[in-house]
């Protein structure tokens, strides 16, 4: 029997200024986009996709009901580094059981970027 769900592939952030967001995310994730067009900018983050879509028309409300967490080796350091780049605190680093730590920030366009330290997670 084949697996139906293959795992997370892409997280997309909607931004009003694609050029500014491309620069900010390049700096925040320390990687250049592999795909850069006026309709979409894509980054490969250790095999996972971070996408930027330009906002069209009226501003889209930003919800807080879905979080994608990006794995980090030092959650406090990365949390503070993103704040120095202009992100704002959404949720300070906290322990959520065992060695697991989570935190989140909002990018300059109010998109939530989750961070997780999870030494138990292994990619299949």
How is this structure best described in words?
The strands form two sheets. This protein has a four-stranded mixed sheet, with helices on one face. The protein has a four-stranded mixed sheet with strand order 5-8-7-6, with helices on one face. It is globular and about 45 Å long. It contains two helices and eight strands. The two termini are 17 Å apart. By secondary structure, it is an alpha/beta fold. Strand 2 and strand 3 form a beta hairpin.
In brief:
The chain has 124 residues and is α/β, with parallel strands linked by helices. The chain is built from two helices and eight strands; from the N terminus they run E-H-E-E-E-E-H-E-E-E. A hairpin with a 2-residue loop joins strand 3 and strand 4.
What is the N-to-C order of secondary-structure elements (H for helix, E for strand)?
A: EHEEEEHEEE
Classification by helices and strands? alpha/beta
Q: Report the portion of residues in β strands.
A: 35-45%
Termini separation comes to 17 Å
What is the arithmetic mean of pLDDT? 92
**Are there runs of 5+ residues with pLDDT below 50, and where?**
none
Extended strand count: 8
Tell me, briefly, the overall form.
globular
Fraction of residues in H or I helices: 10-25%
Q: Going across the biggest sheet, name each strand in turn.
A: 1-4-3-2
The number of distinct helices, counting runs of at least 4 residues, comes to 2
The largest pleated sheet is described as: 4 strands, mixed
**Roughly how many Å is the radius of gyration?**
15 Å
């Amino acid at each position: 029997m084949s697996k139906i769900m293959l795992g997370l592939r892409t997280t997309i952030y909607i931004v009003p200024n694609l050029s500014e967001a491309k620069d900010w995310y390049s700096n925040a994730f320390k990687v250049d986009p592999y795909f850069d067009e006026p309709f979409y900018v894509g980054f490969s983050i250790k095999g996972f996709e971070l996408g930027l879509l330009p906002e069209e028309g009226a501003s889209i409300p930003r919800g807080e009901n879905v979080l994608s967490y990006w794995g980090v080796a030092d959650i406090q350091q990365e949390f503070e580094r993103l704040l120095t780049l202009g992100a704002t605190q959404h949720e300070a680093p906290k322990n959520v059981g065992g060695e697991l730590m989570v935190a989140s920030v909002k990018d300059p366009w109010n998109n939530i970027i989750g961070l997780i330290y999870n030494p138990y997670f292994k990619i299949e």
